[in-house]
């Protein structure tokens, strides 16, 4: 995560001016054809959204969020924020593929006032009940439709399912100056747009934000341009709803260039000015990460400051709480590297369901520790001693990382115990083979959803060695497994 504070993570292991481009036109009703293997293939105008196709699943930890009956292909969000009225006005154009025949479609949504709802241009009956937008329209499996929802209202957050000390409500949050920002893992996107709220259903996005004069709208995705006070962002590769972000505030812009010419944009407030020396470090972090894990997986990167005590790996635009730079250089660096690491491990390659949160957090924490060793002199002995002690404590308190408690989302075991497993692989393989494995895992699985089983299969195939027992033991054991040595060369 994202918004496990760096203090907590370290303690547990001591361990990102032009004209607005026109968004895609809403397709007329189209269909799909089937490939020889039986997998649906989008045809007609919906073919433009083929990269947003997914295989949604029902989450075993949070089955009330998301649905496997809908595969959202693309969200077109046209949003307008009024700080004086504290009101969000939106039009969401949702291109979706039903996965089975049904009499209605359902998306997660907080109870905003619905102004209009249409399906393929025709008015439809709809209502929001128990944080579900249900649109009464008969649908057929694999025949895409376009649902357009106009809405307005005052944002409200949703509780985080966690007892963590740094947990705070999820979703669209109004700050003390009348701006807005959001962090939403494992859910909370539904507090600002109708969403299929599950990582297994990634989609493409076009987000246009209209802000008051002198304010800026920021979102995940690649900046497309600005027309008046409307700011537009586009994601042409799939994004999980938890990794989207939105912020409106009196931001100043810091533009820089990262590795291979990647544009890196930092959005900060006047009160953040004293931290500019820290905020200018993003290109260096990305260069360090690229050298070890391959090319940055997106067209642009950045960072937006928010009135929060946390941080989040929102895709292409890290959302960073304002307390992070207050903790000093080392803590700022480690937190920010952790979040940027997620752009490889979590955003570019995404978990299929929340049981495998270790697959995101284990990697990000281990990368963070490697950075701490390289830049701050953390020794192998310190890393091993502290991580083994903390690993045992966390397994006793929370259980093994493969069996997360739904009421303890983001507990430290999925970080520390997952990172400890990766350290065992690193120790067994050595630097060259381990970094080859890490690069391959990302670059060969770009923009896909993966699982424990697919990770294990990949490790075994890539290394030519059966690591199933090692991975299973470190993910499932109630106690800290014994150390393993390097493979015989």
From TrEMBL:
Entry keyword Protease: yes
Main subcellular location: cytoplasm
Region of interest: Disordered: 388-407
Pfam families to which the protein is assigned, alphabetical: Peptidase_M1
Gene3D superfamilies, sorted: Neutral Protease Domain 2, tricorn interacting facor f3 domain
Keyword Hydrolase recorded: yes
EC assignment: 3.4.11.2
GO CC annotations, alphabetized: cytoplasm
Name of the protein in question: Aminopeptidase N
Organism (species): Micromonospora taraxaci
